[in-house]
Amino acid sequence: MRREPSARTARRGRVPAVSVADAARLVGGVLLPVAAQGAIVRRPRAVALAHRLDLDARAVRTVRRLRERHGPDPVHLRLPGLSFAVPVEPEDVRRVLDGAPEPFSPASPEKRGALAHFQPRGVLISSPADRRERRPFNESVLDAGQPLHHLAGPFAAAVAQEAQQLADEARSQGALTWPLLSRAWWRAVRRVTLGESARADEQVTDDLLALRRRANWSGLAPVDRRRRERFLGRVRHYVEAAEPGSLAALVASTPAAPGVAPHEQVPQWLFAFDAAAWASSRALELLAAHPDVARRVREEAPAPSTDPAAPVARRPVLRSVVLESLRLWPTTPALLRQTTTTTSWRTGDLPERTGVLVFAPFFHRDESRLPQAHRLAPELWLDADGQEDPRGAVDWPLVPFSAGPGMCPGRGVVLLTTSTLLAALAQQEWRPAVPRLRADRPLPGTLDPFALRLLPG
Ligand code: HEM
To answer: What is the CA radius of gyration of the chain?
Structure first.
């Protein structure tokens, strides 16, 4: 890991800021579309518009042009009261993400303002001192870095049961659509996260949704304290109930240092499971457009079992399709950090409290450096033996789950639950009502997951 130079040696000129015209391009072409689509909960109409205008592909082109014009140092945007840097080199992405929580703090002001609406003591917006206790707690409950979570059996069984019901509903209604997928997914998520008795508790996830809508406005919207109390109270109830086979039970039984606030770690998980549904919707569409890959998925392991005691298959091909869905259409397109000290770059320094925005789509879709940029390429995530490489792609910043000390500790649980859902659905063929993807054409920069409509094949 690169050492940060001392402030004394670092005190040179600033990294030059871009012109007003380029600042406008960056704000209008990259930052605004991310904010308008909703950073914390997506706004379906804005997503549909972004899909029509292929805004994410345009944003990638904007950043590429800025890199060509300004060279390898982060594009530095300076406006009154605001200093932002957008890295354009893979090595700088690594440096920023490896440098959490200091000198690149994940608890940026925008994120603190947003996440305080529903998880004021969550790890992601914690001080470095609180993070030291909360991060290991999250890792421990989520079995971060393990090949399969030790509760994979009950988790997969719950998801497989909901997937079966979903497939029945889709067949009887004539199409697999987003509203059906989303309802089934939340039933499964509540069972896995909170316990069996939460299966039909839509109030708890509806409260979270309402809080997330306000969180889209970050600190500009006042916190709805009554609803937040009610929501956190419900989550605490499930942790106290500690139903076997749920994450809530592990929250209750995992030793926690005094500053951890165990049940207040759960909202991040519930919130983040939504992104897994968007990724699954797009993965279904990828499979429908790539029948050869769908066939490999069916062949790699039998259908998931609905018995919690049955062994769970790892499904490397299907997991890599989910990873591809997240590479092609990252659900966290902007990884935000804030510098805690002066940082030194090639052409100069950036002062303390500079915002850093790693724009994942730029790296995931840069065809000048990644030949597979615009096609489905499961091999990017598989090693020579066809096994999923748990480190992800090491030489290239493919960072759908971020990287370094702030990397998503839920990665394994996400890949387990989504691959179980998809494996159950992939037992039969589905074809798009209106094909939006083609295997022989570059894949679009934006894919609206809410427009899913697959017909039983
Ligand atoms: C498709 C689904 C998901 C994706 C793409 C994803 C991605 C990410 C990313 C990019 C971050 C870093 C955010 C940042 O630095 O600002 C993150 C953080 C985190 N994720 Fe996930 N996540 C997903 C689902 C989940 C789930 C289901 C859980 C838990 C069950 C989870 C738990 C967490 C936690 C606790 C953090 C904060 C880590 C820290 O600050 O140290 N995520 N996730």
So the answer is: 22
Question: Can you give the residue ranges of every domain in the chain?
Answer: 7-456
Q: What is the pLDDT of residue 451?
A: 96
Confidence of residue 392 (pLDDT cuts 50, 70, 90): low
First to last CA, the chain: 50
261 CB less than 6 Å from ligand 1?
no
Q: Is the CB of 342 under 6 A from ligand 1?
A: no
pLDDT digits (tens, 9 = 90+) for 282-308: 999 999 999 999 999 999 999 999 999
Is the minimum distance from the CB of 273 to ligand 1 under 6 angstroms? yes
Angle between helices 316-328 and 266-289 (to 10 degrees): 100
What is the Å distance from ligand 1's center to 124 Cα?
Answer: 9
Between vectors from CA 219 to CA 403 and to CA 109, what angle results, nearest 5°? Answer: 35
Distance (Å, whole) CA 445 – CA 364: 10
Average pLDDT score, the chain: 93
Cβ(402) – ligand 1 distance below 6 Å:
yes
CA atoms within 13 A on the CB side of 365: 26
Residue 409 to residue 399: CA distance in whole angstroms:
13
Q: 327-381, pLDDT tens digit by residue? A: 999 999 999 999 999 999 999 999 999 999 999 999 999 998 899 999 999 999 9
CATH topology of domain 7-456: Cytochrome p450 (1.10.630)
Q: What are the tens digits of pLDDT across the range 137-183? A: 999 999 999 989 999 999 999 999 999 999 999 999 999 999 999 99
- Could you say which DSSP state residue 84 is in? E
User: What torsion do the CA atoms of 332, 180, 164, 443 make, to the nearest 10 degrees?
Assistant: -50
Query: Residues 293, 378: contact at Cβ < 8 Å?
Result: yes
Task: State the pLDDT at residue 5.
Answer: 47
| 76-87 exposure pattern, b = at least 16 Cβ within 10 A, e = fewer | bbbeeeebbbbb
* Cα 2 to Cα 395: distance, rounded to the nearest angstrom: 16
The predicted structure's pLDDT at residue 391: 63
SS (H, E, C) 160-215: HHHHHHHHHHHHHHCCEEHHHHHHHHHHHHHHHHHCHHHCCCHHHHHHHHHHHHHH
Q: Give a three-class secondary structure readout of 265-329.
A: HHHHHHHHHHHHHHHHHHHHHHHHHCHHHHHHHHHHCCCCCCCCCCCCCCCHHHHHHHHHHHHHC
Q: What is the pLDDT, as a whole number, of residue 82?
A: 82
